[in-house]
Amino acid sequence: MVRHLCGIFGCLCDGAPRAIIEGLKRLEYRGYDSVGYAVVRGKRVEVRKEKGRIADFITSLDDSSLSGEIGIGHTRWATHGAPCKENAHPHTDCTGTIAVVHNGVLENFMQLREELIAKGHKFSSNTDTEIIPHLIEEGLKSGLGLREAVTETLDKVKGSMAIAVLSSREPDRIVCARRDSPLVLGVGSKGAFCASDVMALLPFTKDVLIMEDETVAVLTRRGVKVTDAKGKAIKPIFTRVDWDEGMAEKGGYIHFMIKEIFEQPMAVRDTLRIPQSFIDRCASLIDDGFLLTGSGTSYHACLSASYDLSMRLGIDSRAVISSEFVDAVSDLDGKTVLAVSQSGETADTLNAIRYAKSKGAKILLITNTLGSSLTRLSNAYICTQSGPEIGVAATKTFLTQLTALNMLTSRLGLKRGLLSESAYESERSFLEKIPKLITRQLAEEEKVKTLAMRYSGRRDAFFLARGSNVATALEGALKLKEISYIHAEGYAAGESKHGPISLVEPGFLCVFIAPMDRTRGRLIGNVMEMKARGAYILSIITRGDREMMEMSDDYVEVPEVPESLYPILCTVPLQLFAYHVATIRGLDPDKPRNLAKSVTVL
Questions:
Q1: Number of folded domains in the chain?
Q2: Which domain does 240 fall in, by range?
Q3: Are 248 and 260 in the same domain?
Q4: What is the pLDDT of residue 597?
């Protein structure tokens, strides 16, 4: 079961606020920047929320605020709107009688917000979520019941959503809905519950129902009723879970890393829902000869984008490792620097950007952390939609960085007339298919695990590629070395004769990223060089490439896609390979030695 983004908890039980706090505490491991809850008190809904940690939030509560029998709560990871009390959930309507908590990303919220403002609605936050209670308010005004108003809202809103809704007008129920974002229901002797994660339900019940997409559920003390989006009843089937606390945190997976690898289709899908205006704002600030900078995996994303900009658009750009930026770059006045950072707090990248800003550069940013230090230094930024990433080895954040950079490149090409409208729409259409194609790659896990068993005893490995997949090779090598402790080196395959080939002897592992792109013909010569010296050839190839199949000892196939999208798909089997090699060697991929999730010191 995949888990994504913030934490939801709702309940109908004695002492609801205390139960909500207990449930939200069990979701803290997911990461968050604010917390809040709403309870029904008589004819009104009382909302309490704050920026910061749950422990601090609790100190602001008194006994009177901890009474009640129905409520919803939320821990927020900022995606639209900076971390602050106003943007924290729950959000309410104009009447203060409806409250909503929401996980996911809404595509058309700006259009709907404008329509609601024109009808007289007042907004108090910068979030996409706040349109939902106002849309439900409109439904109730027209005479609909709460469930029907939620269903109508589901029809109007585009994007991913898991929501829990309560209203003092119908104070005996919580209405939940799901589309592309997980929501779990639970029932037991203590009451009825909903949460974004099984983990939060375990103190109250072990009988759970995982909601399907495009379904609506009504929770009351009497039980649960589930319907499809058109109101047709669905028989709820509950399952008993017997996870321990550690397994529950990981959604049933053994490690956070593999859980987050399997979250990638949803993370990429939600990143594709970033409002076009955000992409356009960044594209408008890019000039020729601009620079990209990042550290580690984020640098690899920069390198991949620099190749893509050159190959697709003929735009020269330069990727610079953040720790070398100050020494490598001088003329920055009026130029654009695009930083890529998962955390937005990476010390080397912050140092590079502060230097660039002091020299008169415009700063763009791609990050997964809204409200971070780098967002405050940037002229414009794109926030990827990965949700918190707990595994030290970056996985879903890398794929969403590649996705955001691809979107930015395509939009830049259209804006400058370097891509026709039809070419742009064709690229966008292919990009929209990527989440499903990633899911298909994940279905190859058992084959990759078999390969990992075959090669887990190797001491050394080369990862080789040409073109934009040089960055993929670097990332594949980094993943293997950082969690399995096998010496792995990634480099441009054409450099083999300039030194690295001297290390190759019979049994040496060479991993080639060799899809059917413009470089494949030249790469075949490099494969033959290594094969002639007794190397084992493990290749990532385009499905049906008979020539590469015959030259390789082992291979993993990926679907045929436009050249710019191969780095996304080719990365997935390399992540799985590194993960399984590490576990086969008896190592914990979530705790690689000497490494931290975010390096915040120089």
A1: 3
A2: 7-252
A3: no
A4: 55
How far is it, in rounded angstroms, from Cα 588 to Cα 475? 19
269 and 230, same domain (yes or no): no
Point out the catalytic residue in the list 6, 13, 176, 282: 6
Query: If you ran DSSP here, which 8-state letter would residue 30 be given?
Result: G
Residues 172 and 298 in one domain: no
Percent helix, strand, coil in the chain, to 5, is: 40, 25, 35
Write the DSSP assignment of 75-125 as a string of letters: EE--SSS-SSTTTSSPEE-TTS-EEEEEES-BSSHHHHHHHHHHTT-----
> Is 6 a known active-site residue?
yes
In a domain, 572, yes or no: yes
In this structure, are residues 203 and 22 in contact, taking their beta carbons and an 8 Å threshold?
yes
Point out the catalytic residue in the list 225, 447, 531, 597. 597
Residue 368 CB coordination number (10 Å): 28
Angle at 577 between CA 573 and CA 581, to 5 degrees: 175
Q: What pLDDT, in 10s, does the model give residues 239-288?
A: 887 666 565 567 778 999 999 999 999 999 999 998 899 999 999 999 87
- One DSSP character per residue, 302-331 reads HHHHHHHIIIII---EEEEEGGGHHHH---
Question: What is the CATH number for 536?
Answer: 3.40.50.10490
The pLDDT score that the predictor gives to residue 600 is 43
Q: Are residues 389 and 479 in the same domain?
A: no
Tell me: the pLDDT tens digits for 339-378? 999 888 888 999 999 999 999 999 999 998 776 789 889 9
- Separation between Cα atoms, residue 489 and residue 491, nearest integer Å: 7
Question: Sheet holding 362-367: strands in order across?
Answer: 317-321, 290-294, 336-341, 362-367, 380-383
